[in-house]
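Hi R.,

As promised on Friday, here is the backbone we talked about, encoded as C-alpha cells. Could you run it through your design pipeline when you get a chance and send me back a sequence?
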C-alpha cells in the first residue's frame, strides 16, 4: 500500500468513529429524555389522582388549623420585614441623566446611574472614606440625624428584623414537624421525593428565606469618562444594625431619656429579657414548653409612641400573636411623628 492510501484509510476510520459517536450519543440522549418524560408524566398522573382523593382531602382537613396558624405567622414575618420601608421612605424626587458632551463615546456606566434612595453618587474620595467609616458617611449622606428618635427607630427595626429572622427558622421547624407527623398517612414516595409539592398541596405558603429585605446603602463613584468606577456598600443586617445602634447611641448619649435607665435594644438585651420572663408570653402565659416553635418577641410596655423608653423595666416578652394584637409592632404615623421631648 502506498503511503497516501494508508492515510486515506486512517481518515476514513476517524470520520466513521466521529459519526458513530454522534449517533450513539444522540440515541442515548433521546432515550434518556424519553424515559425522563415518561417518569415525569407518571408522577403527574399519580399526583393528579392522589391530591384529588378523599383520603388526601381528609388529611388536609385534619391539619387545617395548623396550616392556617403557620400561614398567619408567615404573613406576620413579612410584616416585620417591611418595617424599614415604613420608617425610612424618603422621596428625594427623580431626575434624568442627559449626556450633552461632544464625544462620540457612550458612557454605559454613567447611564446606569440610579435615583435609588439608598444609592449616593459621589466622588472617589467620598467613596473611599465611606468604605473606611461607613456609619459616619451613611449618617451624613443619607440624612440620618443622630437623635433619640432615630435611635429608637433603628432599635425598632432591629427588634423587628431579629424577630423575623428567628420566626423564619421556627416556622420552618413547625412545618417540618407537621409534615413529618403525617408520615404514616401519606405515601412514602410522595413524602420523600416530592416533598416541596406536597407542602404546597397541603396549603402551606412558602417561607421566603431571602435576606434581600435588609436595607443596603451604597456609595457609587464613576469617573467622568465612565471608564473606572467603585462602590462601597453596607448592608444593614442584624449584625450591622447592632453595631449601628451602638454607634448612634455614642453620638446621642441618651440626652433625652432618664439617665441610667436607657438601655440599648441589642441582641444581648433581647435575650436577657426573654430569659428574665422565662421564655413565657406575659399576656397569655404561653411558653416554649407548650409550643416548641413559638416565636417570642420583645415589646415596649409603654410604647415608644407614648414616650416609653427602652429600659429593662419597660420591656417584656410577648408571643407574636399577643404582640400583633397589641399592634405596637408596626410603626404607625403616630410613632413617626414623635417629638424630641
Ligand atoms: Zn401571648
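Update: got your reply. Pasting your designed sequence below so it's all in one thread:
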Amino acid at each position: 500500500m502506498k503511503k497516501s492510501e494508508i492515510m486515506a484509510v486512517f481518515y476514513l476510520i476517524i470520520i466513521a468513529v466521529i459519526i458513530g459517536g454522534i449517533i450513539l450519543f444522540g440515541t442515548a440522549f433521546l432515550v434518556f429524555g424519553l424515559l425522563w418524560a415518561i417518569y415525569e408524566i407518571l408522577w403527574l398522573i399519580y399526583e393528579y389522582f392522589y391530591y384529588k382523593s378523599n383520603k388526601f382531602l381528609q388529611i388536609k382537613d385534619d391539619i387545617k388549623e395548623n396550616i392556617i396558624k403557620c400561614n398567619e405567622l408567615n404573613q406576620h414575618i413579612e410584616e416585620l420585614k417591611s418595617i424599614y420601608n415604613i420608617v425610612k421612605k424618603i422621596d428625594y424626587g427623580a431626575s434624568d441623566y442627559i449626556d450633552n458632551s461632544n464625544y462620540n463615546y457612550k458612557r454605559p456606566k454613567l447611564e446606569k446611574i440610579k435615583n435609588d434612595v439608598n444609592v449616593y453618587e459621589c466622588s472617589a474620595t467620598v467613596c473611599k472614606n465611606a468604605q473606611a467609616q461607613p456609619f459616619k458617611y451613611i449618617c451624613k449622606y443619607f440624612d440620618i440625624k443622630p437623635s433619640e428618635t432615630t435611635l429608637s427607630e433603628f432599635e425598632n427595626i432591629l427588634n423587628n428584623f431579629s424577630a423575623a429572622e428567628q420566626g423564619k427558622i421556627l416556622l420552618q421547624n413547625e412545618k417540618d414537624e407537621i409534615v413529618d407527623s403525617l408520615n404514616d398517612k401519606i405515601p412514602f414516595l410522595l413524602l420523600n421525593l416530592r416533598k416541596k409539592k406536597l407542602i404546597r398541596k397541603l396549603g402551606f405558603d412558602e417561607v421566603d428565606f431571602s435576606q434581600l429585605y435588609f436595607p443596603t446603602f451604597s456609595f457609587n463613584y464613576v469617573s467622568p469618562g465612565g471608564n473606572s468606577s467603585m462602590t462601597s456598600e453596607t448592608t444593614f443586617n442584624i449584625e450591622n444594625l447592632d453595631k449601628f445602634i451602638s454607634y448612634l447611641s455614642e453620638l446621642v448619649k441618651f440626652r433625652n431619656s432618664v439617665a441610667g435607665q436607657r438601655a440599648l435594644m441589642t441582641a444581648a438585651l433581647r435575650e436577657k429579657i426573654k430569659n428574665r420572663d422565662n421564655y413565657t408570653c406575659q399576656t397569655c402565659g404561653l411558653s416554649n414548653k407548650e409550643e416548641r416553635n413559638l416565636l417570642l418577641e420583645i415589646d415596649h410596655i409603654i410604647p415608644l409612641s407614648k414616650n416609653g423608653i427602652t429600659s429593662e423595666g419597660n420591656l417584656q416578652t410577648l408571643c407574636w400573636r399577643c404582640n400583633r394584637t397589641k399592634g405596637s409592632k408596626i410603626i404607625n404615623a403616630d410613632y413617626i411623628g414623635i417629638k424630641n421631648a
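One thing I noticed while checking it: The pocket of zinc ion is lined by residues 281, 283-284, 286, 318-319, 321-322 (CB under 6 Å).

Thanks again,
M.
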